[in-house]
């Protein structure tokens, strides 16, 4: 085809409003005026909000259920919460690969939603199984083994469903915007901000409703409400089917597993390591990236696009590793932050006590306030200085969030030191059940700063990992972003286990003792603040040398 013919064809496509690289629900080329854009993403955002209501309705107060009805120790409960959250955030790597390889994002969402709903139903049933002791005091655990088995089976079934749902629905939502159209390309960046805003609204609502119901009415009802919310999520998603765009890069055709493709490139490069650069020069396209040139040797046996995929993923590894400490920090809100608040004065009136997990609402409130400020004030101001459409680069955004996590942890450590001193001054060191006469409002600053840090880091990571991988690997790209949280939770669980063992030897009191008035959460927060500082410096160094890629 000649250049003039190609130009005429592109002009005809643009004139007809056909979106290149996508089809509608009937399998016909997508028409811009009747598919995709905000009309489609509205249904997707609604489904995400309902799903987040369900997920955080379980996750935000899980440590209270572990230490209460399931009678676990504080350290054991925190480790179990971290392991579960880590699994839910790590599974997107598997589901993203499945979606990109053969199942497609739409069908993966339907499958995982069904597993999700079944798991929530099973979890609700487990909460109705009565205690064995019937309110009699005993030194033996009153928890039925059947209850524990069903509960954990349901919990990890939810993790399997949630892991696939969130990675695919976020990629599917971004697929509704055409990167080749200037207006839609700009709208996609806005979409990432406002979808995060909407999810935060859903999380805020569930922390106000579900946590109160669970602690004051019934755990079964508190688990049942999220189950209904997930049913609503699936309904909203299906409602928008007629308006969706389905990417031909990920829907409707089979692909080799992305892990297999990338692995094949590394194996081929290793086999051809004796080849000189001059021998592989003619096999490498002129537009090939100049980084990781040792992988160009794989072009002898692999497709050049596969080589570029491997380079794109490899370039993300240093950034990904530097963000893992933020993943550890991210794991503290539903665990030790919540336990910290449970020992303090949470009364609003003589009859109303605020659930400790509800304090996490301040994270979402700060997100809801700051995202419009970021989008309407910060971005235009930054744009006038940098002349970048988004104001600052995604890596600058992420580094700002990592930096803000440090003062959040410093404040958490200082507040915990004050709480311990207050408990000591009032003779409550040996009274774990007593309320420390210190207002829970002291925790608000660390939650607020934590939320602002989220706006920079989590939204930045989502946009960065989605945009810096080839189109065919975008589910995998978002999986890498979510795995930061997953691996962070695993590392947090590992750290808690190691520190618990190290600090409880020789008759010493553990940092995570069941009696928090004797424990030292402040030491743990100081440790995390130091690690975050190191991670920030490392991130900045790698970000300076990173070369942005065009995923097309």
UniProtKB/TrEMBL annotation:
Transmembrane intervals: 83-103, 110-129, 149-169, 219-239, 313-332, 352-374, 395-415, 478-499, 523-543
Chief localization: membrane
Record CDD domains: MFS_NPF5 (cd17417)
Domain of life: Eukaryota
Any one GO molecular function term: dipeptide transmembrane transporter activity
Keywords (A to Z) from UniProt: Membrane, Phosphoprotein, Transmembrane, Transmembrane helix, Transport
The UniProt record lists the keyword Kinase: no
GO cellular component: plant-type vacuole membrane
Subcellular location: Membrane
Entries under InterPro entries matching the protein: MFS_trans_sf, NRT1/PTR, POT_fam
Bilayer topology: Multi-pass membrane protein
UniProt keyword annotation of Protein biosynthesis present: no
UniProt-listed Gene3D superfamilies: MFS general substrate transporter like domains
Protein family (similarity comment): Belongs to the major facilitator superfamily. Proton-dependent oligopeptide transporter (POT/PTR) (TC 2.A.17) family.
Name of the protein: Protein NRT1/ PTR FAMILY 5.12-like
Species name: Raphanus sativus
């Amino acid at each position: 085809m000649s250049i003039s013919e190609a130009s005429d064809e592109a002009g005809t496509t643009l004139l007809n409003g056909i979106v290149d690289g996508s089809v509608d629900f009937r399998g016909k080329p997508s028409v811009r005026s009747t598919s995709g854009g905000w009309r489609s993403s509205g249904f997707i955002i609604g489904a995400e909000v309902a799903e987040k209501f369900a997920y955080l309705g379980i996750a935000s107060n899980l440590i209270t259920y572990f230490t209460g009805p399931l009678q676990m120790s504080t350290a054991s409960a925190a480790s179990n919460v971290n392991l579960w959250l880590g699994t839910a955030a790590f599974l997107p790597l598997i589901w993203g690969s499945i979606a990109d390889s053969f199942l497609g994002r739409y069908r993966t969402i339907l499958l995982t939603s069904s597993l999700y709903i079944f798991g929530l139903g099973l979890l609700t049933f487990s909460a109705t199984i009565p205690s064995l002791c019937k309110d009699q005091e005993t030194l033996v655990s009153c928890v039925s083994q059947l209850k524990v088995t069903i509960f954990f089976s349901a919990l990890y079934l939810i993790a399997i469903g949630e892991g696939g749902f969130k990675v695919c629905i976020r990629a599917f939502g971004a697929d509704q915007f055409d990167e080749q159209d200037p207006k839609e390309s700009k709208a996609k960046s806005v979409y990432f901000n406002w979808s995060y805003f909407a999810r935060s609204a859903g999380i805020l609502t569930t922390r106000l409703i579900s946590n109160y119901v669970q602690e004051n009415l019934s755990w079964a009802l508190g688990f049942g409400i999220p189950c209904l919310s997930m049913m609503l999520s699936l309904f909203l998603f299906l409602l928008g089917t007629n308006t969706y765009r389905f990417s031909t890069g990920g829907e409707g055709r089979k692909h080799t597993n992305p892990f297999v493709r990338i692995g094949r490139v590394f194996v081929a490069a290793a086999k051809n390591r004796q080849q000189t650069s001059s021998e592989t020069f003619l096999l490498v396209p002129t537009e090939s990236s100049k980084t990781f040139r040792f992988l160009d040797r794989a072009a002898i046996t692999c497709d050049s696009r596969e080589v570029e995929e491997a380079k794109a993923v490899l370039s993300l590894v240093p950034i990904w590793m530097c963000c893992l400490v933020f993943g550890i920090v991210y794991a503290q809100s539903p665990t030790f932050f919540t336990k910290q608040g449970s020992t303090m004065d949470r009364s609003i009136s003589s009859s109303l006590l605020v659930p400790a997990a509800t304090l996490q609402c301040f994270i979402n409130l700060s997100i809801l306030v700051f995202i419009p400020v970021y989008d309407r004030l910060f971005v235009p101001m930054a744009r006038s200085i940098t002349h970048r459409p988004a104001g600052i680069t995604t890596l600058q955004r992420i580094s700002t969030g990592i930096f803000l996590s440090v003062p959040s942890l410093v404040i958490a450590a200082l507040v915990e030191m004050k709480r311990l001193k207050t408990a000591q001054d009032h003779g409550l060191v040996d009274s774990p059940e007593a309320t420390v006469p210190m207002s829970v409002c002291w925790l608000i600053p660390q939650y607020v700063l934590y939320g602002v840090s989220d706006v920079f880091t989590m939204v930045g990571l989502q946009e960065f990992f989605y945009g810096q991988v080839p189109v065919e690997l975008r589910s995998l790209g978002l999986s890498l972003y979510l795995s930061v949280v997953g691996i962070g939770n695993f590392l947090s669980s590992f750290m808690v286990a190691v520190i618990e063992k190290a600090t409880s030897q020789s008759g010493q009191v553990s940092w995570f003792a069941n009696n928090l008035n004797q424990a030292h959460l402040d030491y743990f927060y100081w440790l995390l603040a130091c690690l975050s500082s190191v991670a920030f410096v490392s991130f900045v160094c790698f970000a300076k040398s990173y070369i942005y890629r065009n995923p097309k």
